[in-house]
Fold P-loop containing nucleoside triphosphate hydrolase protein.
Amino acid sequence: MAMKRVSTIFRPASSSAGPSLSGTPPPTVAEDDESVSTEIAEAKSQQTTVAVFPPPNLKVKRVDYYYTRWGGWKYKNTGSKVVAEARPFMADNEQWPGYCFVVIRTIPQKDDDKTKPPQHKFHIKSPYLLKAIKDVMKEIEGISWNNEPLEMEPELFLGFLPAFEEYRDKLAVARKTATEEDKHVLATVEVLIDYLHKDWKRTIATIRNLTSHGEINYELLYAVFVPRTVVITRCPSSNELRALEVVTAAQVVTMGGAFMDLTLESIDLIDEHDNTTRFGRVRSRVTIPMFKGTVAINSLDAYPIQYHPTPNELHKVLLDRGRRWAALCEVHHMHYKGTGAIRVNNKMVKYNLNSRIMVDRATFKRLNANYPFPQPKQKPNNIDPYTGMHVTSTSTVPTLDVAGKVKLVKRDLEENDLLIASPIVYGFSLSDKVWLEFNVERISKIEWNDEAFANLVLPLGRKQLLQSLVEAHNQDLGFDDFVQGKGQGLIINLFGPPGCGKTLSAEATSEHVRKPLYVVGAGDLGVTAAEVDSALERTFDIATSWKAIILIDEADVFMEQRSLHDLIRNAMVAVFLRHLEYYRGILFLTTNRVKIIDDAFRSRIHVALYFNDLDASAKTQVWNAFLAKVGAALTPEEVRKLAAREINGRQIKNAVRTATSLAHGRTEPLALTHFLETLDAMDDFNTQFNALASMYN
């Protein structure tokens, strides 16, 4: 799609190109008017004495630049009826010496659209005014302070007018003790401000009148989107308000329509070529479609933070969130309750979560190399030539410690940086097993369940054995295989019938040692040797970086005895065995059919724990644990009646959940009858299922 940038539409009071924004005709410009005020210029010149700094030029030149078919492009003084002068054959920086600045109005050719307004440019001639502009505007994208003459659009001066007035006031207060240079700078700034208030009087009045009421029109959007203004918009991932800083704002016209194109910057993590990460500025775009009439500023898709209904409160919220974001920039095991999102084919796919997550941007990016992360500024002009770092920004700087390892030293971000920090972090949902963007405000610390291990239905000796092995593995005991890096993991096999507590044992152990639990189903690993190899390598790599405990549930298919007739499965088993040999972490394997485990697996398993069917005492313990969670007040006799039923631990959990829902739906207090009704329904299902199974067997 063809695209071109056009200057913002405006109506300066001195222009002859139609009515002003207020609807009244502009004042007549005196012929050959070359100064804002002759009296002001003479007074300022008389104040100048012989000094190190030459006196400033305080005159303003206005010229029209227009096209004639017989003479080409020509200049003439704005408002003059004198015959147009031919364009001088000299460099731009040599034209019109002796002026503070020159305002060039380019008149559209007659063949152009007659409704197109003239285009204005300022040529800055005075070095003192140039210093003031640099002091006020700092750095403006697309403008080099080394250009001679410096050419700028009037929208920038109108947008920065309040800043210029503040700058002038500060210089005026210190006039008595000011240097000669500062006095000259003050004089040129006063000339600029006087000019703007004279030639752009109606435009300035319209801007101030509208913005004082929190309103704006499309033509004057440049007045609110001034470079370095902090604006707020909605984050597409979290839908929370976030702050960004304006870099550029330009009105764009395409075949599809006109819009204001905003280039914005925020603070995020940036990856370096040496695999380190630092804080830096990244860019994003927001577009505001053209609209008619006047609208509330805070109804725009992006708007300056001061136009928010409660800007001070929002400022505090954004700062607090920025601090939390900065604290989450490394690897963290956290809890998340809210909406996570992932970008797929330029669309945000969202998930409702209430689970534990791993915040880990580096691994996210490594495993999702093509994911569209925010991009840093491509050619920053504030790069230190020796270190390659942004010399004006705070960052995480790689340094070398005494062991020769690269470490990251994180400097504190300033408040201005925290304000525009990213509202999201990247990570992995351990329950949903998906990589997502997470809302920082929805992340909280984990509330560990210390009762899980205590309620584990295992003989005391086995429970202590499990606890000791896992805790000892967290410490470096100095033991290694004859082959370095081999056999340093802890492989625990939990075998027994379904519902006897195998999975719960792994979950309770991870709670007890305060480590993430990465659950992998046998189906997640694939059905070919290549798929299993890739999945295990990825799983073990992630778990090692997180120091997580891995649980591979229902691992029978991989641990089953190999045969000479199934070469595909034999290859899968061989791949599995090789990865087990070199895994350094803690791995739980659950299986139901221990009798057919391959001999090679038996030699690689450090501990094998057998789980029997739950007896009456164990079932009573499980019933009491789940009943306490739902607050059911059953007598010991009623609990014994429930424990007498033929049911496993997982079925007990399901029965408690179903009975609770049944009582809630009937608005009745939870009682024994609800549990018995649920268990009877489960028994009926089992009876019918067994009958059908016997018919087909």
Residues 224-443 form one domain. The first strand starts at residue 3 and ends at 6.
